[in-house]
Amino acid sequence: MRVLVTGSRGYLGRSIVEQLINAGHEVIPFTGDIRTADIPSSDGLIHLAALARVRESFDDPLSYYDVNVTGTLRLLHSRPPRFVLASTAGVYGTPRGRVLTEEHPRVPTNPYAASKAAAEDALAWTARTGALSAVTLRLFNLAGGGDRDDARVVTRACAVAAGRLPSMEVYGDGSAVRDFVHVADAARAFVLALETCAPGHEAYNVGATPASVADVLAAVHRVTGRAVTVERRPAHPGETRELRADTAKLRALGWRPVESDLDSLVRSQWEAAGPHRTA
Fold first, then answer.
1. Which of 11, 142, 201, 235 could lock 134 by a disulfide, CB 3.0 to 4.6 Å apart?
2. How many domains, in total, are found in the chain?
3. C-alpha to C-alpha distance for 192 and 20, rounded to whole angstroms
4. For the chain, how big is the Rg over CA atoms in Å?
5. Residue 38 and residue 120 share a domain
6. Per-residue pLDDT of the chain (279 residues; tens, 9 = 90+)
7. CATH code at position 32
8. At what angle do helices 213-224 and 153-162 cross, to 10 degrees?
């Protein structure tokens, strides 16, 4: 299958490209601005390119809608037979005390998540016309594999342990739970979704290992033998205390995480980006 991948040079994109090639697909990396550049024809499209900073999105919501929604619309106009969209668990908003299934109401609370929900809707309605087969993958917390985004919990904790950053801010008591998944396991979900997508539209959660910030810090200490210097901050008002993914629907397709237990996530990040950069 000839597969067009937007965002192919990014953290997740690099892993997806590698796995597509290993699966025997021909990859067409998309270069340029998705709003203006020519869109090559393909047998399938994996759409990763997006603006994705929650705090930044509050300051510039129009840019987020322009790139994340208008860009998606333009790709849809190219009518690829198969279309897999990277979305976010942020579309669920701030639910309290529940495991999230794909049927949970979408109540995005920031412009980034709202723009992703709008892109999901455009894809779903287009698929409903019969124009293409479509899948949305709602990503929870990607980690491991040499991530360079120090805003992510596992990445930052490893960077502090390696001495590249002075400390890690922890809000509240560190008991807030998030659902982590190794970037390679997430990439496997994209390849599977592309290969199995059928007429219509389906959404799937992509998560694997619920863990608190305190759990992550303990895992970093176990794996690296180094403590993480912490700066305590008051808990954010209204912060979601627990965010867990129900992945039964994705697992029914045959997906299983193989690298996403917490120690493996930390070890993967540490070995790829940690000790060899220590001063």
1. 201
2. 2
3. 10
4. 19
5. yes
6. 999 999 999 999 999 999 999 999 999 999 999 999 999 999 999 999 999 999 999 999 999 999 999 999 999 999 999 999 999 999 999 887 679 999 999 999 999 999 999 999 999 999 999 999 999 999 999 999 999 999 999 999 999 999 999 999 998 899 999 999 999 999 999 999 999 999 999 999 999 999 999 999 999 999 999 999 999 999 876 677 889 999 999 999 999 999 999 999 999 999 987 554 443
7. 3.40.50.720
8. 40
Go through the chain and tell me how many residues it has: 279
Residues 150, 75 share a domain: no
| Sign of the dihedral defined by the CA atoms of residues 125, 204, 31, 57, in that order | positive
Catalytic: 92? no
75: part of which helix (H) or strand (E)? helix 71-77
Q: For residue 41, how far is the Cα from the chain centroid?
A: 25
At what angle are helices 153-162 and 262-273 packed, to 10 degrees? 50
Using CA atoms, how far apart are residues 136 and 246, in angstroms rounded to an integer? 15
Given the residues 11, 64, 112, 204, the one annotated as active site:
112
Alpha-carbon gap, residue 216 to 143, rounded angstroms: 11
